[in-house]
Amino acid sequence: MSAAIKKLTGFTMVLDTIMKCPKLTVLDISTLENVPTYVTIDIEEFQKSCPKLKVLRMGNNRYKGTPKTDEEVEKSAGFPDLEEFNIPDLSGRHTMHNTIVYDVFNRILHKSFKLKVLDIRGRCNESYAVLETIPAADLESLHVGLSSMSYDDPYMGLFLKWRQSLKTIDLSWVQNVELAIQELTSGPSLPLEKIQLTGSNIEYKDLRTLLKKCPKLNYVQLESCRNLVRGIKRLYKDEDINVLKEKIKNLGNI
């Protein structure tokens, strides 16, 4: 069972119904409209009522949980089957209005060991320490582009945690991307297939290392990367990856 809700009034009206849907597997409230303040959710009751939830999309708005004690949070079953959690803000506001309340983030994901996809693009006031609390060991898709993490330093081993499972990563507009690349490529070959680097400060040495250590890459987005020459800055897909490798090779030791 799945549900998509567009109006805050609609969300409020059906919340009680949602709490009675133990078979709900997909919930999308990312298109809620006319939300002037926070959307308040009883997270633990939500988890208790929807134990089979696999996909939760909560983008473009602000959320907070009803107050609970640490004991109540710890006793919650969490979302043990959750595989995808999307909470981006792509509105372009880039203010404190698009922050994720850490408490909400932690309470939603603290027992989501099966999580595969995480999207927090465009969110402010987040740190890599927030992501380190995620118990999932096999995250496959991570999107942090345009978040305040784009400017955080250092990465504190975040990519070491998931380097052997990540297949897709979005580092758009990350200004210290070399640290991420160093962590990602610090060991054996990677399973990485897709990387989004739009607007980042990636340099040729990092790009060479990435191409060498990621033999499965079939998508590399390099638009607006200011440290690269104009002929390099574009999207490369599938067979185009060989074109990129040849271009980098022809640039020599730049």
From TrEMBL:
- Which InterPro entries does its entry note? LRR_dom_sf
Name used for this protein in its record:
FBXL6
Originating species: Mytilus edulis
Question: What is this organism's lineage?
Answer: Eukaryota, Metazoa, Spiralia, Lophotrochozoa, Mollusca
